Amino acid sequence: MLDALTLDQIRMFVTVAEAGSFRSGAARLLRAQSAVSHAIANLENQLGVAVFDRSGHRPALTPAGAALLEDARAVLLKVDFLRARARGLGEGVETELALMVDTLYPLPLAAAALGELRAALPSVRLRLATAPLGGTLQALRDDACDLAIMAGEDFRDPRIEAEALQAVPIVAVAAASHPLARRRSKALTGADLADHLQIVLEDPSALSEGRDFGVLSPQTLRVGTQDAKRALILAGLGWGRLPLWAVERELADGQLLPLPATALGPQGVAQMQAYLAWRTDRALGVAALALREVLHRLAATSSRGSDTGPAGKPRRKAG
Predict the structure, then answer these.
(1) Strands (E), the chain
(2) pLDDT tens by residue, 108-146
(3) Which residues pair with 98 in a beta bridge?
(4) pLDDT(80) > 90
(5) CA 90 to chain centroid
(6) Is 72 in contact with 7 (CB distance < 8 Å)?
(7) Tens-digit pLDDT profile for residues 191-247
(8) Helix, strand, coil percent values for the chain (each to nearest 5)
(9) What is the Cα–Cα distance from 148 to 144, expressed in whole angstroms?
């Protein structure tokens, strides 16, 4: 029987495993090392297996401990979610709500959603920020926002709940004066694109360190904002990929031309799936739930009104 198994023991087990030693784990928990060692010994007695091998300089997970660690983490996540939900049920409307939006997501839709929320709950102070790539996930991890709109599947965390909003068309473009624009009569290959400078958006977080997304050219110019990327592409300095909503006017008046780059999707257009996300250990309050409902409704309306539908499984490409 496991009646004497406690959440405190499970949390100590996970903390020591992540910290790498009983001493470091005790420091994180603000507990005496002897108390932590005793609690884990009791846990092992209750489970009937040793979770740590203590024969070396540092405790090492046993095969049984490694197998049980993910189960222990899952238990703690469920408990944190239960507590957060209980707090949310007992609280009223939030005084402030922060939304972090991936730069690929249509800002007019986010603005419309916030406008509806403002009309319904005028007492709630609203904050909006944007970030590319891993920036939205990092904001959630840092508890810097209540909700985030993420794009693609490259950045995920088991502590973050995500639900699909809509697909966002991403188009490869170049200025009308760019050499690639003059070759639009035929499909452009990856080799064609690699011969020219690509304007690439950098990740403000460290989550994509050592990785590139959708970068096809060895010649790159990296920028920190989507506005800078768009301006450099408009100036003819290089080619790049931008969300269709952000360049519709320039495409309509001929300042930018779409590149039929088959390596980046049919006719150079790819569909990026956007997700609404929040922390599982933070209950959504009244305002957050209201904004969630509005975002889903506007996303459904926008998707029905779009001529461009999803094309295969969306993949995250930042180039």
Answers:
(1) 52-53, 60-61, 96-102, 125-131, 147-151, 160-175, 198-201, 220-223, 240-243, 256-258, 269-279
(2) 999 999 999 998 888 889 999 999 888 999 999 999 999
(3) 127
(4) no
(5) 29
(6) no
(7) 888 999 999 988 887 766 666 667 888 989 999 899 999 999 999 999 999 999 999
(8) 45, 20, 35
(9) 10
pTM above 0.70, yes or no: no
Q: What is the spatial distance between Cα 262 and Cα 188, in angstroms, rounded to a whole number?
A: 6
Residue type present at position 197: L
Please list the residues that pair with 53 across neighbouring strands.
Answer: 60
Alpha-carbon distances, residue 208 vs 60, 212, 277 (angstroms): 29, 7, 19
With a cut of 90, say whether residue 75 has pLDDT above it: no
Question: How far apart are the C-alpha atoms of 241 and 263, rounded to whole Å?
Answer: 12
Q: Token pair 């709109």 is at which residue?
A: 149
**Strand-pair partners of 125:** 96
Burial of 92: CB neighbours in 10 Å, binned 0-12, 13-18, 19+: exposed
